[in-house]
Amino acid sequence: MNLPTKWAKKFLSGKESFPFQLAVLAIYIFIGIPLAKGIYINEILILIFYFLLLSGGIPFLKSKGKTGIILFLTLMPFSFLLMYLILDSVWLKFVTNIFLIVYCVLLGTVNLIRTFSGGSINAHRVQGAIIVYLLVDFVFALCYDSIYLVYGKSAFNGLVVGSRQECMYFSLSTLTTSAYGDITPLNALARSLANLEALTGQLYPAILIARLVSMEMTEEKISRKTGRE
What we know:
There is one protein chain. Helix 3 packs antiparallel against helix 4, helix 4 packs antiparallel against helix 5 and helix 5 packs antiparallel against helix 6. The protein has a two-stranded antiparallel ribbon with strand order 1-2. The chain has one domain. By secondary structure, it is an all-alpha fold.
């Protein structure tokens, strides 16, 4: 059995999906988005990113018996994205955002369950926790982009073209509470989401660290008790 076949089997079983998802998200958010120039190139990049992200979530969602949902949430966004590239319709972009928000929320939930399931603390759990954090950033960015599509420039102050790059930058700045004030929400819905994201950005790491430390201490106690017996 050659190496690609072995890796494919590990990936489909979920063993390699955490590193794959983390790599895709990190490359897209921190490298792909800043370097993307031009609307058309950006949409092509987003199409590739969505394909990789959707592929990376297949092992986890499949293990939960969500095959029908996977096919639906995988095919529909791609169909809308391709139509958007051809027709350049704002509403096609909006509908695509909704599908992707639902998918990312579902994927993040499954990842959280696997991350905090019983067992010892390892690298995969840490990777899973980071993936969920980045997915939160991505979901809020899609929400901001959708708000901008509906309300236009009256929703935010500081957005130059209202692209996904700007929404992602604003989302990550808000999540990490390091916003510089160059982009500010004006719409009531946008302000509420920004407050919710900032609160999530504060609570998630604190709860995550406490939970992981608790799990590690519990595992050590069980190991010691088992060793004594």
